[in-house]
Write a structure and sequence with these properties.
The complex is a heterotrimer of chains A (about 160), B (about 850) and C (about 290). Chain A has about 160 residues and is α+β, with helices and mostly antiparallel strands. Chain A has 5 helices and 6 strands; from the N terminus they run βββαβββαααα. Chain A has 2 domains: about 80 residues, Ubiquitin-like (UB roll), CATH 3.10.20; about 70 residues, DNA polymerase, domain 1 (Orthogonal Bundle), CATH 1.10.150.120. Chain B has 22 helices and 30 strands. Classes of the chains: A alpha+beta (about 160), B alpha+beta (about 850), C alpha+beta (about 290).
Chain lengths: ~160, ~850, ~290
C-alpha cells in the first residue's frame, strides 16, 4: 500500500527511460511533465479536461494528463510527444499530418498525434467515423478537423505501406 | 516513404502558387515548438490574478496580508497601488466623453464585470500562487447591473463609469445615398423588428501567457508573451508604465492560435510588469481557460432594431436603414474601432446605394470585447445576409436569384461603395454557382419539395455571401475620433545574405498558424532564384532583432499583402545588391547577372559565376578587395516597409477607402432539421474562396476550413451568455461547447482567383472569412421555415431555438417581420 | 486550475481502502477521476485525502454468468465496457452507451462506479442501469450490502453509498426473453452534455407486455415514468402507440432550466427521448446518440 501523504515518491518510465521523483500529491501529471521534467511538448488548453491538448499514453491508455495526479503515474509507463519520433525520424502519423496540412498553430498537435497514434495501434484501418470518434476529445480551433481527418486516413495508409 | 502531393518538384524561382510543404511543421509535430508558457526565466515567480465574482460592485477593501503571510509568496499588487504606480490610465481611442474612462491594469474603486481583476499575487509555484490568491480578502458592495447592450444606453441604466456620465461609448450616424428617398420610392418595404448577433469568441486553444521581467540592470521590460499585436500593446501600456518603447521589449515564437483575441492581453502584461518590478523577479503568468473565458475578451455582440429595407418589384434592393447597438462590455479594449470597421463592407456583396446606420456602442457589465476573427464586419455582413434571405422569404424571391440580381457584378470592378471603399476584383455570381454545384443544390431543392409535412424532418438550403476585407486603412480611426494620429498601414521585413551566403528573413509579424515561415520563404526564394527550402525565415518576433512598424503584428487578413509585400521588397533590394557585387566580381554588367540556386552567373556563360558565399565574403570579410563606394553602400542587409496607397478618410462624411483588398467567400449548405428536437444536421457544406493570387493554395484552403468550422461552431454551439446578475454562464469548455470533430461536417472547397490589381503579388489578405457559416446556417434554417413561422433573428441557433422556430407558426408566435407596399406606408404616415 | 493541498494513498485491497475511508472524515475514493479531479481543480469541494482505488484488482473484473447476468467491477472503465465481448453479448446497449460517453480519453479513465457514485443527473449510465434493473453492491466495514439501482440515487451528487463505504460492483441481470433495451439522448453536441436522456427496457411480442421507461436530466435522479409505462402496457409495439403513451409525460416533470436548455424544452425533450428509447427497444429506430 502507498501510505497517505501530501508528498509521494514515485517511479515511472517516460518514453522508455526509467525515472524517480518526489511529487506533491496534488500536482497534476501535466504540470509534473512540463514544470518538473521540462517536457513542454505536452500542452494545456483548458482546466476541465475538455480539450485533449495534454493527451499522453499511460500504460497503453490514452489519457488527459490534466485529469490525472502525478502520484497516480507511479509504476506506470508514460509516452509523450517527445518520445514518438525515434532518432528524429517522424512516424507515419507525424508525416501524414505534415503531408496533409493537418496542423496550423500546432498547439493541439501533440495531443492529436498521441490520439491518432493510440487509435492506429488499436485499429490500423479505421473508418472516417471511427477517426472522428477517436479525436472527439481533442479540440482544434484552426483546421476545422478536415485535414486532421485526412491526415489520420493517410497515416493509416502510410502505416499499411510500411507494414507491407 | 510515400510521396506527398506537396512534394511535387518546384521549379526554382517559381514557388508562388505551389502548395509547398510547411516549414513550421517539423518542430510542432515533435513538441519542439516554443509557446509562451514554455518560456522560463531564472528566479521567476508565478502570478495569479484575483478576479471579481461580481459583475458590478464597489471595492470596499482589498487585504493581501493573509496571502503575503504564506511561505513562498513574493509579492502582491492591488488596484489602489497600481494606480499610484502608473503614470496614467490606459490611452483611450474613444473621443469625449468616453475618453474619460480611467482603466488601469487592475480594477480601481469598482469592479465592472464578472472576472474583472482586483489583485495579483506572485509566488514560488503555480499551486502556491493559486493558494495565495484565495487568501486575498476582498470586500465588495454590490451595485445594480446592466447586461443588455440596448438597455445600457437608456438614461436610467446603472452607470459603469460615473465620470463619463453615460454608458454610450460612441454614437454616430452613417448616412450614405438617400435612404429616405429609397424607402419612399420602393415597391416594398420590409421591416424587421429585431436582429441579434451573439457573443462568442474563437477561444484559441492556447490561452494568453507572458513572462515579464522588469530588469533593474538595464531598466528594460522584457515581455515574452503571445500577444499578437505587440506594437499596439506597447503604444497602450508604454505611457501608462512610463517606459519608452525602446525599453519595452516584446518577443514571441510560436503562438497557439489568436484570431484577434490575443490583442487583448495588454492590461495583464502591464500588471505583470509592475509586479515584476515590485518583486524584483520575472513574473510568469499563464491564463487559465476559465480566466480566459471570463476576461480575455469576447467577440462583439450587436443588436439591430427597426431595420427597414427598400425593395423593388424586380428584386432590386435599394438599401436599408437600421439602428445598431454594439455591446462593448465593461471597458474599451481596441474599441470603439469596431464602430467604424464594419463600414469596410457597408453594402456587403451587393450594389446597395442607400444606407443609413444609426450606430451606438454601449458599455455593459460584461467582459470587454476584443477583435475576433471577422472583427466587426461579420456582424454587419450577417445583417445584410439576413436582410437578403428575409426579403426573399417574405416577397417570394428565390434566394439564389435575389443574390445574383443584387451582387456586385464581375464587370463592376473596381467598384466604389456608397462610402468610398473600392472593391478590387471578384466574380461573385460564378463563386455562387460553384458553391451550389458542390452542394448539389438542385437535387436538394427537389428533395425539399418532396419532403412533405408530417415526416418530422425539414430540409433547408442556405447561402452565406461574404467579403473578407484585408489591409485596413487605419485612417478610419479618425471617423471615430478625428484627433487620433493614425492613418494608412504597413509592414516591415528584413532580408539579409549572411556570412556564408545563407539567405535569412525576419518579419514584423507574429504568426499563430498562418504559415508565415513557409510563404515568406516562397516569395523571397522566387525573387532570389532559390527554392523556398533554401531560405531561412526566423521563427517568431523579437523586437530587438526584427524590424517593425507601428502596425506590425498578425491580425486583420493582411499578411499576404503587407507582410509578403515587405518581404518581396526587401528581397528585391537584396537581389539588386547581390547582383551589383557579383557584377563587380565577375567583371560583367549587372544586367547580365542571373541568380539561380545560390549562384550568380553571367548570362550565356555559366563558367563565369560566383556563389552567394563568395558575394557574402566580399562584403563581410574581404572588403578591402572592393571599391570604396561599393563597400560603403552595400551591406547585404535589406529592410523594406510595404506601404499601401491610402489617403486619410473624410471623418465628416464617414467616407474613404478603408481597405485595400476584398477577398470573397461564398458558402452554401444543406441542413436537415429534426422537428422534434430542433437538431440541425449539416448534410452538405461547401466554401468557395476567391482571395486573388494564392501564394500557397493548401495554406489558403486550411484557413478556409478553420474559419468555416469556427463559424459553424458559433452558429450552432458556441455562445457567451450572462444571467441577470451578470454571471457568465459559459466560463469553461465544459459549458462552452467548442465544436468537435464529431460535430463538424466535411467541408468541400473550391476557389477562383481574381487577382487584386492593387497588391504586390495580386494576392489578397484572407483567413478571417467574414463569418460566412453564420450567414449560411441562418439562411438554411430560414429556408426550412414556413410562411407562418418566425424569422431567424439570432445568429446563434442551438437546438432549442430551432425547435422554437419550427413550431413558432403553429403556436402563433410573433414573426418579427412585416411587409408594406409603399402606398400603404405613406397613407399610414399621413393618418 | 490547481488543486488545494490534498493527501494521496493507494491501498492494495478493498479492505485497506475501506479502512482509509473510515478513518478519514474528509476522504474520498479516486477512481477514474474524470469528475472528481475537475471538482478539486475548481476548488468547489475540498478533501483531506484521496484514496486511489483505480488499480484494485477486486474492482476491475467483468464476470459473466451462463445465463447472461453480469457482475461488473466498479472500476471497469467505459472503454472496457465498450470493448468487452461479455458485455457486448449480454447487454449490447450498455456497451454502446458506454462507447458514446464523451471521448476516448474519458472512456479510458472513467469508470462505471464513478459514473454512478457522482450522481450527476446528466450522466449516461444511471438511467440505463435503472432500466436494466441493476443491483449495486456496496462494501462497508460491516460487510457487503446490495441496493437496487432504482434506490441507489438519492439526489444531486448523493447516493446510497454512505461514509466509509465503497461501491464495489454493479450486477446487471440477464435480459428476459423478448426483452430489449433502448436509449436516447438530446445533447448540446455529439456525445456531450445531455439536455434530456431516456433509457427503456421493453418486453414485447407484437404487444408490449412490460416496459420500463427511465428519464434523466429532468429531475435530480433518474426516475421511471409510471404514467408512460402504464400507457404502454398491452399496446401494440409500434411507433404510434409509443408516441401516444409518451404524451403522458408532461406537467408532472419539473426540470430545472439552465444555459443549455429551458425547463420547457427539457420537458418536451423528455417526451421525445422517452418515445425514441422505447421505439428503439421495440426495434423501430436506430441507435439514438446525441
Amino acid at each position: 500500500m502507498v501510505e497517505a501523504g501530501n508528498v509521494q515518491a514515485i517511479e515511472f518510465t517516460v518514453n522508455g527511460e526509467r525515472r524517480e521523483a518526489t511529487v506533491a500529491s496534488r500536482q497534476l501529471l501535466v504540470h509534473f511533465l512540463r514544470d518538473s521534467l521540462g517536457m513542454k511538448g505536452t500542452h494545456i488548453g483548458c482546466d476541465t479536461g475538455s480539450c485533449g491538448a495534454c493527451s499522453v499514453i499511460v500504460d497503453g491508455r490514452l489519457v488527459k494528463s490534466c485529469m490525472m495526479l502525478a502520484p497516480q503515474a507511479d509504476g506506470c509507463e508514460i509516452e509523450t510527444i517527445e518520445g514518438i519520433a525515434k532518432d528524429g525520424e517522424l512516424t507515419a502519423v507525424q508525416r501524414a499530418f505534415h503531408e496533409e496540412h493537418g496542423l496550423q498553430c500546432g498547439y493541439c498537435t501533440p495531443g492529436l498525434v498521441m490520439a491518432a497514434t493510440f487509435l492506429l495501434r488499436r485499429n490500423p484501418q479505421p473508418s472516417e467515423d471511427e477517426i472522428r470518434r477517436a479525436v472527439r476529445g481533442n479540440i482544434c480551433r484552426c483546421t476545422g478537423y478536415v485535414n486532421i481527418i485526412r491526415s489520420i486516413e493517410r497515416a493509416a495508409r502510410n502505416g499499411a505501406e510500411e507494414a507491407a | 516513404m510515400s510521396t506527398t502531393p506537396a512534394d511535387t518538384a518546384v521549379e526554382i524561382g517559381r514557388s508562388i502558387g505551389v502548395s509547398v510543404p510547411r516549414r513550421e511543421d517539423r518542430r510542432l509535430l515533435q513538441g519542439q515548438g516554443e509557446f509562451a508558457d514554455d518560456v522560463w526565466m531564472h528566479r521567476q515567480g508565478y502570478a495569479h490574478f484575483v478576479r471579481s465574482p461580481h459583475a458590478h460592485a464597489r471595492i470596499v477593501s482589498v487585504d493581501t496580508r493573509r496571502a503575503l503571510a504564506l511561505d513562498g509568496v513574493y509579492a502582491a499588487l492591488t488596484g489602489e497601488e497600481v494606480k499610484e504606480l502608473c503614470e496614467s490610465p490606459f490611452f483611450q481611442i474613444a473621443p469625449e466623453p468616453a475618453a474619460k474612462i480611467a482603466e488601469y491594469p487592475l480594477a480601481v474603486d469598482k469592479v465592472r464585470y464578472h472576472g474583472d481583476a482586483v489583485a495579483v499575487v506572485l509566488a514560488e509555484t503555480r499551486e502556491l500562487a493559486r493558494d495565495a490568491a484565495g487568501l486575498v480578502d476582498v470586500e465588495y458592495e454590490l451595485l445594480p447591473v446592466v447586461v443588455d447592450g440596448v438597455a445600457a444606453a437608456e438614461a436610467d441604466a446603472p452607470l459603469l463609469h460615473e465620470q463619463v456620465g453615460t454608458n454610450v461609448a460612441w454614437h454616430g450616424v452613417f448616412d450614405w445615398g438617400d435612404v429616405d428617398w429609397a424607402l419612399e420610392n420602393a415597391d416594398h418595404v420590409v421591416e424587421i423588428d429585431h436582429l441579434h448577433f451573439h457573443r462568442f469568441s474563437s477561444t484559441p486553444l492556447e490561452c494568453n501567457a507572458a513572462v515579464v521581467h522588469w530588469d533593474p540592470g538595464t531598466d528594460t521590460v522584457q515581455v515574452k508573451s503571445n500577444n499578437q499585436m505587440p506594437m499596439f500593446a506597447s503604444m497602450v501600456i508604454g505611457p501608462t508604465l512610463g517606459v519608452a518603447s525602446n525599453r519595452l521589449l516584446f518577443a514571441s515564437q510560436d503562438i497557439g492560435g489568436a484570431f484577434g483575441n490575443k490583442i487583448g492581453s495588454y492590461p495583464q502584461i502591464a500588471a505583470l510588469a509592475l509586479l515584476s518590478r515590485k518583486a524584483g523577479r520575472p513574473a510568469k503568468w499563464t491564463e487559465y481557460r476559465t480566466e480566459h473565458m471570463l476576461s480575455c475578451g469576447h467577440g462583439n455582440e450587436r443588436t439591430f432594431l427597426d431595420t427597414r429595407v427598400a425593395v423593388m418589384k424586380d428584386g432590386t434592393i435599394l438599401g436599408f436603414k437600421t439602428r445598431a447597438f454594439d455591446d462593448a462590455g465593461a471597458y474599451l479594449h481596441y474599441e470603439p474601432l469596431g464602430a467604424v470597421i464594419w463600414s469596410q463592407v457597408s453594402c456587403g456583396c451587393y450594389r446597395l446605394k442607400h444606407l443609413h446606420v444609426d450606430y451606438t456602442e454601449t458599455l455593459t457589465n460584461k467582459c470587454p470585447t476584443i477583435p475576433n476573427r471577422g472583427y466587426s464586419r461579420l456582424q454587419h455582413l450577417w445583417l445584410i445576409e439576413r436582410i437578403i434571405d428575409i426579403v426573399a422569404h417574405e416577397l417570394g424571391f428565390d434566394p439564389v436569384e435575389l443574390r445574383k440580381r443584387n451582387y456586385v457584378q464581375p464587370d463592376d470592378y473596381p467598384y466604389e461603395t456608397p462610402n468610398g471603399c473600392v472593391y478590387d476584383s471578384g466574380d461573385l455570381p460564378r463563386s455562387l454557382d460553384i458553391a451550389l454545384e458542390l452542394i448539389d443544390h438542385d437535387k436538394w431543392r427537389a428533395r425539399q419539395r418532396e419532403l412533405g409535412r408530417g415526416s418530422g424532418k425539414r430540409i433547408g438550403i442556405g447561402i452565406g455571401s461574404t467579403l473578407d476585407s484585408g489591409t485596413n486603412n487605419f485612417g478610419q480611426a479618425r471617423i471615430i475620433n478625428p484627433e487620433l494620429p493614425f492613418s494608412g498601414n504597413g509592414e516591415a521585413a528584413y532580408v539579409k545574405l549572411d556570412l556564408y551566403g545563407e539567405v535569412n528573413v525576419n518579419l514584423g509579424t507574429t504568426p499563430q498558424g498562418q504559415s508565415h515561415e513557409t510563404t515568406a520563404a516562397q516569395v523571397v526564394g522566387d525573387v532570389l532564384g532559390m527554392g523556398p527550402e533554401q531560405v531561412h525565415v526566423t521563427a517568431g518576433f523579437n523586437q530587438q532583432q526584427n524590424t517593425y512598424v507601428a502596425f506590425s503584428g498578425t491580425y486583420a487578413s493582411q499578411f499576404a499583402v503587407t507582410g509578403l509585400g515587405a518581404a518581396k521588397g526587401a528581397a528585391e533590394k537584396l537581389r539588386a545588391e547581390i547582383i551589383e557585387v557579383a557584377a563587380f566580381a565577375l567583371e560583367a554588367d549587372a544586367e547580365d547577372i542571373e541568380l539561380a540556386d545560390g549562384m550568380c552567373s553571367v548570362r550565356g556563360d555559366q563558367e563565369r559565376a560566383i556563389p552567394f558565399i563568395g558575394v557574402a565574403n566580399l562584403i563581410y570579410a574581404n572588403n578591402a578587395a572592393l571599391p570604396t563606394e561599393l563597400r560603403e553602400r552595400i551591406s547585404l542587409n535589406c529592410r523594406h516597409v510595404y506601404v499601401p496607397p491610402f489617403e486619410v478618410p473624410d471623418p465628416d462624411k464617414k467616407r474613404g477607402n478603408l481597405t485595400l483588398t476584398y477577398a470573397s467567400q461564398i458558402h452554401a449548405c444543406v441542413v436537415e432539421i429534426d422537428e422534434d428536437t430542433g437538431h440541425v444536421e449539416i448534410l452538405e457544406y461547401a466554401a468557395v474562396d476567391d482571395c486573388g493570387k494564392r501564394i500557397n493554395p493548401r495554406i489558403v484552403e486550411g484557413q478556409v476550413h478553420g474559419a468555416t468550422a469556427l463559424g459553424i461552431g458559433a452558429a450552432l454551439y458556441e455562445s457567451f451568455e450572462y444571467d441577470g446578475d451578470g454571471q457568465l454562464q459559459q466560463a469553461s469548455f465544459y459549458d462552452y461547447h467548442a465544436i468537435t470533430a464529431l460535430d463538424a461536417p466535411d467541408i468541400k472547397t473550391a476557389d477562383i482567383e481574381s487577382p487584386s490589381p492593387f497588391t504586390p503579388n495580386g494576392a489578397k489578405g484572407m483567413g478571417e472569412g467574414g463569418g460566412a457559416p453564420l450567414h449560411a446556417i441562418c439562411s438554411a434554417i430560414q429556408d426550412a421555415l414556413g410562411d407562418q413561422d418566425a424569422i431567424v433573428s439570432d445568429s446563434h441557433n442551438p437546438w432549442e431555438r430551432v425547435w422554437w422556430l419550427v413550431h413558432s407558426g403553429e403556436r402563433g408566435e410573433p414573426r418579427g417581420v412585416r411587409v408594406s407596399a409603399q402606398a400603404a406606408a405613406s397613407a399610414e404616415g399621413e393618418s | 486550475m490547481l488543486l488545494e493541498s490534498v493527501a494521496y494513498a493507494r491501498p492494495d485491497t478493498v479492505a485497506e481502502a475501506l479502512q482509509l475511508l473510515a478513518e478519514n472524515e474528509d476522504a474520498a475514493p479516486l477512481a477514474g477521476g474524470q469528475s472528481l479531479i475537475n471538482v478539486l481543480k475548481h476548488r468547489v469541494a475540498s478533501l483531506e485525502l484521496l484514496v486511489d482505488i483505480s488499480r484494485l484488482e477486486e474492482l476491475r473484473g467483468i464476470a459473466a454468468a451462463p445465463d447472461g447476468g453480469l457482475e461488473i467491477g466498479a472500476c471497469v472503465t467505459y472503454d472496457e465496457l465498450d470493448h468487452s465481448p461479455e458485455v457486448r453479448s449480454a447487454q449490447p446497449m450498455l456497451a454502446d452507451v458506454a462507447g458514446h460517453i464523451e471521448d476516448q480519453q474519458i472512456r479510458d479513465a472513467g469508470t462505471i462506479g464513478g459514473n454512478c457514485c457522482l450522481s450527476d443527473p446528466t450522466n449516461n449510465l444511471p438511467p440505463l442501469l435503472v432500466a436494466l434493473g441493476a443491483t449495486m453492491v456496496i462494501a462497508s466495514s460491516g460487510g457487503p450490502r446490495e441496493v437496487a439501482a432504482s434506490d441507489f440515487f438519492h439526489g444531486y451528487f448523493a447516493t446510497a453509498v454512505g461514509e466509509g463505504e465503497l461501491l464495489t460492483s454493479v450486477r446487471v441481470p440477464p435480459l428476459a426473453a423478448g426483452a430489449s433495451a433502448g436509449y436516447s439522448t438530446v445533447a448540446v453536441g455529439a456525445d456531450s452534455k445531455a439536455i434530456a436522456r431516456a433509457a427503456a427496457l421493453v418486453r414485447a411480442n407484437g404487444t408490449i407486455e412490460e416496459a420500463r421507461v427511465v428519464l434523466a436530466c429532468v429531475s435530480p435522479i433518474p426516475a421511471r415514468h409510471a404514467g408512460m409505462e402504464e400507457a404502454l402496457r398491452g399496446r401494440a409495439a409500434e411507433p404510434a402507440a409509443v408516441a401516444a403513451a409518451a404524451e403522458r409525460i408532461g406537467a408532472d416533470l419539473e426540470p430545472l432550466g439552465d444555459a443549455h436548455g429551458s425547463a420547457e424544452y427539457r420537458r418536451a425533450m423528455a417526451r421525445v427521448v422517452a418515445r425514441r428509447a422505447v421505439c428503439q427497444a421495440i426495434g423501430n429506430g436506430g441507435p439514438q446518440h446525441g
